[in-house]
Design brief:
116 residues, single chain, alpha+beta, 4 helices, Beta-Lactamase
Length: 116
């Protein structure tokens, strides 16, 4: 997980409160709310969000996992997998830009040309 966050072991604790500070401000409140809800009532989780590395670069993560509880139902740990989806998000962004450019070009062409 440290590699996905651009960190070294010991750079931050594994506490939920500390982890949320690594999330991009755009996603931070949503992720905080999701984690609170998951810890309060749920057991499985899945989320996509951005994190900010120490060098300022933004990386997109996809996380899936489960909350494990003790006999009293209190959460004791979270386990799962996370992977970097930054390349996929970049390609999606580029495709969206190309689509918008094509639409702008089509909107500015005064006459449709047809060939039979």
């Amino acid at each position: 997980m440290y590699a996905l966050l651009g960190r070294q072991p010991g750079d931050y604790s594994c506490r939920v409160e500390d982890y949320v500070t690594l999330v991009h401000p755009f996603d931070r409140e949503r992720v905080r709310r999701e984690l609170k809800d998951i810890l309060a009532a749920g057991s499985d989780y899945e989320s996509k969000y951005q994190v900010v590395w120490p060098d300022g670069t933004i990386h997109h993560l996809h996380a899936k996992g489960r909350v494990y509880r003790d006999e009293q139902g209190s959460p004791v740990r979270m386990a799962g997998v996370s992977w970097d989806i930054s390349d996929r998000m970049q390609k999606t962004h580029e495709q969206q830009q190309q689509k918008e450019l094509l639409q702008a070009m089509m909107d500015t062409i005064p006459v449709m040309i047809c060939e039979s």
